[in-house]
Amino acid sequence: MKPVSLRELAQHLGAKLVGDGELMIQSVSTLSRAGKGQISFLSNSKYRSQLADTSASAVILTEDDLPHCPCAALVLDNPYVGFALVAQLMDSTPAAADSISAKAVIAEDVVLGEGVVVGANAVIEAGVILGDQVQIGAGCVIGRNSRIGARTKLWANVTLYHDVEIGEDCLLQSGAVIGADGFGYANDRGRWVKIPQLGRVIIGNRVEIGASTTVDRGALDDTILHDGVIIDNQCQVAHNVVIGENTAMAGCSVIGGSTRIGRNCTIGGLSAITGHVEIGDNVHFTGMSMVTKGVTEPGLYSSGLPSQGSKEWRKAVANVRNLDKLGQRVKVLEKKCSERD
């Protein structure tokens, strides 16, 4: 990425420029490590002490923090979003592939849009349609009759099973598996009988899926991830799950089958949501939440317990085990008190 003037960055962000607009910015860094030619950001006032000592050429910050800034600045209401947009503009991440490799295996009837690139040892099966500027990394497998929208990028070793549909401007990290069988079985007197998973996975636009995350295909209906969903690494989305627009799911979380998640939700890391429940819009679970029933009211929900010293934890567990006895004693005391009255 060639250097960009601070004035150009201000125009790109729609930010107020304070200082020399001809300063050339080469990259982005943190307040504590930034140097000449770098731009940083301050989105949390508790780091204001680092602002005074920064060697950055410019800083993205709010109007409230501007008086404390020793260098040029771009003033925004949300500096963190400003940082994200500048980082996108200066992103030097390579493409997943730079051509259609001679070592890729592509079925004769595959439809390739303009500018499609496919890495070595990728396999693209019959009936697949790839939109313009799609990037398929090395070792990917795209199953029969799948469709991938324009500008979507698959890093190496992503697997799409058959009949998967992915929208435009999506990003799938290495090792993601989309469209594997859901965990569907019937029990016949102790013997598990597999239920064929006949649905699909439908993924909207601007969806990002992390490394080694699995999204299972539906049993009968489809598994659906709507526009703007982001899912971290090593997550599990079971069959027939529906996730609403712009919901975010942090690492190592799981969603059980046939659960519906609303729009603009956040699911903290290591959370587990049981199957066949419905979560409304704007619901937020902190890390390690165990969700066993539906939630309809927007808000913040928690259930995971913070770690503590082992001795204190054992004492707390012992107290929990005695809660039933304590409850019975309270009932007896309440009864005696009511009799006295």
Automatic annotation (TrEMBL):
Pathway: Bacterial outer membrane biogenesis; LPS lipid A biosynthesis. InterPro entries: Hexapep, Hexapep_transf_CS, LpxD, Trimer_LpxA-like_sf, UDP_GlcNAc_AcTrfase_non-rep. Pfam families: Hexapep, Hexapep_2, LpxD. The active site is at H239. One of its GO terms (biological process) is lipid A biosynthetic process. Its EC number is 2.3.1.191. One of its GO terms (cellular component) is membrane. The keyword Transferase applies. Keywords: Acyltransferase, Lipid A biosynthesis, Lipid biosynthesis, Lipid metabolism, Repeat, Transferase. It catalyses: a UDP-3-O-[(3R)-3-hydroxyacyl]-alpha-D-glucosamine + a (3R)-hydroxyacyl-[ACP] = a UDP-2-N,3-O-bis[(3R)-3-hydroxyacyl]-alpha-D-glucosamine + holo-[ACP] + H(+). Residues 23-89 form the UDP-3-O-[3-hydroxymyristoyl] glucosamine N-acyltransferase non-repeat region domain. One of its GO terms (molecular function) is N-acyltransferase activity. It comes from the Bacteria. Homotrimer. Belongs to the transferase hexapeptide repeat family. LpxD subfamily. Catalyzes the N-acylation of UDP-3-O-acylglucosamine using 3-hydroxyacyl-ACP as the acyl donor. Is involved in the biosynthesis of lipid A, a phosphorylated glycolipid that anchors the lipopolysaccharide to the outer membrane of the cell. HAMAP family: LpxD. This is UDP-3-O-acylglucosamine N-acyltransferase. The gene is lpxD.
